[in-house]
Batch of 2 targets.
Target 1
Amino acid sequence: MDSYGDLIAADDVLLFVNAAITSTGQREFHSDAGEQRLSLDFLHAYMLGNYRDLYAGVLALDINDYNAVLIVRRLLETTNEATAGQRRSEGRLIAARLAMLPPQRVYRLFDALRRARVNNRRTRAIMRDWLSARPDLAFDAVKYRSGLKRALRHAHLAPGHAHLAPSAEELGPFVFAPLTRKRYATPLLETWRRAHYEKAALYELPFTAAEGFAAKHGIPRDVFLQRIAPRMTRLETLRLQESAHQRGATDVQADLTRMPLTRLAAYVLSLPVEDRLRRRHELTHALESAAGRAAGSHRASWGKVTAVLDDSFSAFGSAHKRRRPLAVALACHYLLAALAGDYTGLWTSGRTDALLTYPYGPTPLGRRILDALDTTPSRLVIVSDGWDNAPPGLAAEVLRIWRTRLDPERRTSIVHVNPVYDAADFDVRRLTATVPTAGIRDAEDLPPLVELAQFTEGRTGLAELSTYMDTRAARMLSGHNHEQAR
Amino acid sequence: MTTLDLTGLESRPSQVWGAVRLVPLVRDEPVDDLRLRPELYGDVAGLVQVGPRHAYVSYIPHGFVATWTNDSTPAAAYGTQMSADGNAAPAATMGLRFHHRMARRQAKNRLRFLPMHLALEGYLALHFGGPSIAWEEWSQRAIRQGLSPRVEEAYVGTEVHGLGDALRIFEIHPNQCGVMLYVADALAAVFAVPHPDDYRALHPTLLQDLYGELIHHYATLMPPVREFRARIPDAQIRSLAHLRTAVADQERTWTHFHDTTMATGLLEHTYTWQTVHRMERFTLSRFLPTFRPKQENHIGEAITDDRGRIAYLKTFRLSENQVRRGHLLSRLAAKSWHLADTAVDLGIDEAQLGLRLESAGFGFLLRQDVLDAYRKQERTRDQR
C-alpha cells in the first residue's frame, strides 16, 4: 500500500505530464500567453524542487518539444544540486531527448543557456556531443548560422576540433568570418558564398537560407517559390502550399499521404469548406492513410469504439494555435476509425460530416455522451477541452451516474483526452473524477496516452507509475522510441 | 401599460466568465422579413447571407454609425430606425466628427457605435420633452429647450471588467437571436434581434454598448459568479432512458428558473409604451419603466410584429441616480409639471421638492429666484 505522500507524488507527476503535453506557452481560447507561461513556470519549478528524478524521467514521455526544452534547461541550470548518479541518468535522458528535437529548437535552447550564463562542464559536454552527432555540420552552418556560431562560442569548441569533422578547417572561417575566403572546398558552403552574387546559386540552398537571398536579390515571390520547391522540407511544403498556389507557383505540391496525421488535420481545417468538398476524395484518402500509419500494429484491435468529439466554438483555440483543438479531434476521429473494429464518431454540434467540420456553437457534452452510451461501446473516448456549458456540469453527472449506477462493473472503459491546458487549474480541465483525463498534443500519441490515463483514475500508485516511466525511459534510450519511427 | 413579453425567445443554459453571465435567447423560427441593414454587417458580411433577399423591412439599431449620407461622412442613427426600401438613408441621423485616429479606423470598418453618451442623452430627451405647461416656477431655458441637452453618465462595455473576455469566449448557439447579460447576477441588458445572422453580426458590438455605473461597479467589485451546474438525483435511475428523461428535466428546470426568478426584474413590471413608427407589420416603440426607486428599472426600444411578438429589443438598466431622476420627472409629468401638486403627491412640501430637483441635477429647470426662495425656506426650517 502506498503512503499518502506517494499518492500525492503520483498525482503531481501526472498533473505535470498533462501540462507538459498540452501547454506550449501560447495563447489559448480561455487564457492568454502570459497566464499560460506563469502557470507552467510554477509547475516546472515545483517539480524540479520536489521530484527531480521524476522530473527528468518525464523527458521520456510524449511531452511536447516546448516543455522538453524547458526541462532540459532547468536541469542544466541546477546541475550542482544533483548527485553524481542523478547527473549520469539525467545526462543520458537529455542526450536522447535532444537527439529527437528539431535542430532549431536545440540551437534556441543553447542560446537560452548562453543568455542565462549556464556554462558548467556538463552543459558543454552535452553541447559538444550533440553537435558532433549532427549528420552534416556544413548544412547547419548554412541553415542555422547564428545558432551554430553562438553554440560553438559558448561551449568553447574550436571548429577544427576532431569531434567536428568534416570540413572542419573551413567551418571556423565560414562561421566566424564568412566572406574572407575566396573559395570554399565544401560544395554547400561554396554555394552559399556564390549566392551572394549569383541568383541561380541560391536555389541550391535550404529554403529558409534562400529566402533571405531572394529578398536581397529582389526575386519575385512566385518565381522564387516555383524554383525553390524541390529544396523545401516536408512541413515547409505543407505550410506554404496554399499561399504558393495563390501566387501561381504550382510546383509547391505537398505529398499529403506522407504527412503526420495531426498536421494534416490542421491543414485540412485551414481550407475553405468548398475546397474540402472539391478535394474530398484526396483529403479523405490522405487522412485515412496517415491514420493507418499512426495506428500501426494496433490497427483494428480496439473493438467497438465510440468517440465524442468537440467541435464547439472553443475548439477554435486562439490566433496562436489556430483550430488546434479541433485538428486534434479530427485526427482522433480518423485514428480511432483505424484503431477500432467498429467505430462511431459523434460531434457535439450534431453534424455528421467530419471533413467539413468547423468550430461553431456551444458544447452540449452531456447529451452527446448519452447518445454515445446508447451505442453500447466497449470503449468511449471523449476529445474535448472540458468546457461543458450546455448546461454546465451535465457531462459530469451523466458520467457519474453511468459509472455508479448503470455500469458499476466497468464494461465500458471511458477516457477523456484534452488538448488544452487550463492555466488557472494547473491541469487539463477534467469532466469528472470518475473518468480518467489525459492531456493530448498529437493524435498519434493516443494509444500510449490511453495507457497513461489509467493512472489518473487514482487506482495506481507511485510505484507502478515509476515502473512505467522507467520502461519508457529504457525504451527511449535504446532508440526504439515510436516518435523516431514516425 | 403592459409588461414585456419574450414569447418566441427561449432561454438556454448560461455561460459564465468572472462576474459576467450571458444567457442565450434562441428563436425556433427566425423573423425573415425584418433584417439588419446590409451596410451594418461590416466584417462578418462574408459569414452571413447578405445576398439577394426578397422584400423585407430593414432596421438600424440606435447609435450605429455608417456612411449613410452621399458625401460619405459617417453619421449615426438617432434612435432605432426602420425602412422598407433597403437603400434609403435613415431619416434621423446625427453627423459625427472624429479626430484623425478614429477616422482612419472608421474607414477600415464602418460598423461601430457612436460615442454612446450621445445615444443615452438621447434616451432621456426622447422620453421627456420638458414641462408641458409653463408654470411660472420653470425657467425660460426649461420651457424653450426641454431637458435636452442632458448628459447622462454611463460606461462603455470595454470598461466593464471582464465583459470583453466573456463576450469573446461566449459560444453562440445555433439559432441564437439574443442574449441577456447579467453582471454579478444583476440584469444589465437584454438584446434581441430578428434573425441569427444579425445576431452573429452584432454580438461583438455589445462591447461597444453602454452600461450604467451600477453594472460597472458590480463587475469591478464582485467575485466570480457561480455556474448553475446540473444535478441529477441518481436514486431512481435504472436505465439510459431514465437518464435521458432526467437530463431533459434538468434543461427545463434551468429555463423555468431563469424566466421566473432571474429575469423578473425586467419581465414582471409594467412599462409605458410609446409607439414611434409603424411599417408594414412591424411597430417600433420605446418603453419606460414606472421608475420605482431602489429597484431594477430598464428602459429600451423594441420592434414588435403584428402578433405582438418581440422582433428586436434593446434595453438599458438605469443606475440608481437615473431612476431617482426619472421618478421625479415622471411624477412631475403626471401632475402636468405643477410643483405644488407634485409635492403633495410625494408627501413633502414644495421647497423640499425644489431642493430634491436641484440635488437630482435639475436645478437649471427652476427659475433662480424661485430656487433661492426654496433654499431660504429650508434654512429657516432647519433653524427652527
Target 2
Amino acid sequence: MSDFAGMEDLLQDFLQEAGDLLSDVDNKLVDLERSPDDRRLLNDIFRGFHTIKGGAGFLNAGELVTLCHLTESLFDKLRNAGMTLTPGLMDTIMAATHGVRNMFGEIAQGRQPNPASPEVITNLRAALAGGGKIGLAALTATGGVEGETLVGPDPLPATAVHSKGPDWQALHAAVTGQSVGPLAVSAPVEPVANAGSGSAVDLASLQPHFPPEGRRVTDKPGAAVSGAPTGRRVEERAAARETTIRVDTARLDQVLNLSGEIGLTKNRLTSLRADILAGRTDAETLQALDQAVSQLDLLVSDLQNSVMKTRMQPIGRLFQKYPRIARDLARQLGKDVELALVGEETEVDKTMIEDLADPLIHLIRNAVDHGVESAEERRAAGKPLKSVVRLEARQEGDHIVLMIADDGRGMSPERIRAKAVEKRIISEEEANTLDDRQSLNLIFLPGFSTMAQASAVSGRGVGMDVVKTNIQKLNGSIEIRSEAGKGSVFVISLPLTLAILPVLLVLLGDQPFALPLSMVREILPINQERMQEVGGKETLVVRGEILPVIALSRLLGWPQVQPAEYGVLMQTAERSFILAVDNFAGRDDAVIKALDDFRPRGVAGVTTLSNGQIVLILDMKELLADLTAHPERDLRPAPARALEFFA
Amino acid sequence: MADPKMRILVVDDFSTMRRIVRNLLKELGFANVEEAEDGAIALQKLQNGSFEFVVTDWNMPNMDGLQLLQAIRKTPALKHLPVMMITAEAKKENIIAAAQAGASGYIVKPFTAATLAEKLQKIFDKMGG
C-alpha cells in the first residue's frame, strides 16, 4: 500500500522535477567548492532546497522537509551571516544532498522516507548552532515578539520544544523512535499576534494549517513500522527505472494534429472503399484513392517521427549527475579533476539515456581513477595540476556521438599487450599481430584490468567489457584513441533511436534478411574471376584493400546454391569484410520487434515487410564472433532455426 | 462569492507547485488559471492580459514574489490587483515585508483547498467591502 495513495500524479511530477533540481544543486555544489564566496551559487542552492522543501510539504514527507529545512538554513547562514564554507561543512552538505536523494528513492517506492541518518542531522545542527547569529536558534530571537516566530507547519523538533503544552506526537516519536511526519507540530503554536499592526495582511489567518485527516501520515503506524527495516533495501532500489516522461507540449500537439489528420484521411478511405465495393472504379475514384493513400503514407511517417521525438530527451539530464560523482571520486583519490560537460542539449532516446547511465559512470570513473595521473606525476610531467575530464555529446547525422576525454597519461599499447599476454587473455603470437588500435581494444576483453591491483574505485576489471556489451546492446560502438602523455578519449557512437533501424535487405535465394545499414559501406558486384585466395580464405581487392569475403550462407549454415552475385562491404569496429549475398532488395526503415523470450544468437530482432513477410534482422557481430570462435563448426546456426520457427 | 471565471495568474518557479495550486483552485471552481515561471514573466503576462487575481510564490529566480508585488503596486494599471503570497514558512519579518509591500493575503505551504478557500474569501470580502 502506498503512503501516497491518491497523489500518484503529483508524486511523479515532484520526483521528476525535484530530482532535476537536486542534480542541479549537486552540480552547483561542485562549482561552489571552487568558488565558495559566489553569492549567486549560494542563493541558487538555497532556493533549490527551499523549493524541494515546499513540494515535500504537500506530500507530507516530514523527514524530507526537515532535512531540506536544515540544509536550507545552513545556506541562509552561508549567504547572509558570513559563515565560511569549510571542507568539513562541504562534506556535511554533500551528505545531506545524498540523504535527500535517498529519500526521493523511498518516495518513489511509495513510502514516506525514513529519517535522515542521525549523523547528518547532528552535523547540520552543529554547523547551524556553531555560527550563532542567524539560523534556527536565532530565529526565535528576532523582532519584538517573544517566543516562536515560525508559525508555519515546521516539522523541526525544536519547534515542538518551544510550543506550549505537551506535544504528544513528538513524545510518541521520542518513545518509539518513529518519525511522525510534518504533523509533529500540530500542538498549538503561538501565532504572531502583534506583528506589523495596521498592515494589510490578515493576521488572524496565520495559524498553521494541516492537511485533512485522510492524509495524516501518523495515522498509519503500520506503514511506518514496516517501512523502517527495509530502509537499506530502498537505497539499493532507488535507481528504479522512471516510468514517466516529460514532453514538450508543442511536440504532443503535433502528434495530436497528425493523428487528427490521419483520422480524416481514414474517413476519406472508408468512403472510397464504399464507392469501390459498390462498383465505382472510374479514373476519378482511383485517382482519389491514390491521393488518399499517398497522403496517409506521408502522415504516418510524420507521425512516426513526431512520436519518436516525444521520446527524445536532452542528455544533459543524465550528464548532470556526473560532476558530483567525479568530484567525490577525485577527492577520495587526492586529485584535482574538473568534469567539463559539452553538448548537454543533445537529444537522445529516453531508454537509451537510462541504459547509458552505468557505462558512462564507469568511463568517467575510469578516466578519473586510471586516466588522470596523481598530483606528483602531473607536476613531474610539467602539466597543470588540475586536470579536465570532458564529457561531450553531439549529433552527427543519424548518430549520437559521446566522448569521454581525459588529459592524463594516456594508454600504452605495449603495456596493454603485455598485460593481456600475462593474464593469458591472448597468446604471445596473437599479441604480435595486433596494431596499436587493436591493442587498446584489448581492455574491452573480459577479465582485463590495466591496474596491477584492483582499485576500490574502478572495480576489478569487470567493467570495461560490460561497458562495451551495454553499448553494443544499444546498437552502438565504442572506440579508444590515446596519446601517451596527452590523454585518452573514449568515443561512443549510437543510433538516434532504438525503435527504428535503417536496414539493407539482402536475399539468399528468395529469403530476405535485414542488415543494419549503419554497418554497410557499399554494395559491389562480385566477379568470381577476381576472387583471390589468401591463406586459404577468399578475398577481394577493393581499391587496394584486401578484404575477406564471407558468404552469408556460410554464416547461416545454409547451402550455397549458386555463386554469390553481390558483395556488401561491411565495417564493424574491429574489421571490414565483404558479405557475399545472392541479391539485394533495397533499403527499409525497419520497425524492430524485439524477440524478448526467444532470442537466438545472431538475430537482433524481426521486422515485417509491406507484404507481411517476416524478416530477421541479423546481428552481424554475433554471427562473426561465432564464426571466429568455431571456424570449422558446421552446426546450423540459430538464425536458420529461428526461420523455421516463423515458417 | 467571487466570479468562478475570474482570470488568475499562478506564479512559481517549481512546476509541480504551480500544478498543485492550479488543482486546488480548480477544486474551488476557479478554472481560468494561467501560469508564470517567475516574477519577470508574470509581470509581462500581467501587463499584456486582463488578470483579476495573482497567487505568487515568494522565493523565485530573476524576480522574486516580493519584487513582483512591489512592481505590481508601482504600476498604475495593476496596482489594485489582489496578490496572495505563498511561502514555505511564516517568518514574522517576511509577513511584515509582504504586508508593507501591499500583499492582499498570505498563505503558508503546505495548505489544503479549504485553507485556500478561506484565505481567498477573506480577500474577496475585503475587496467587496
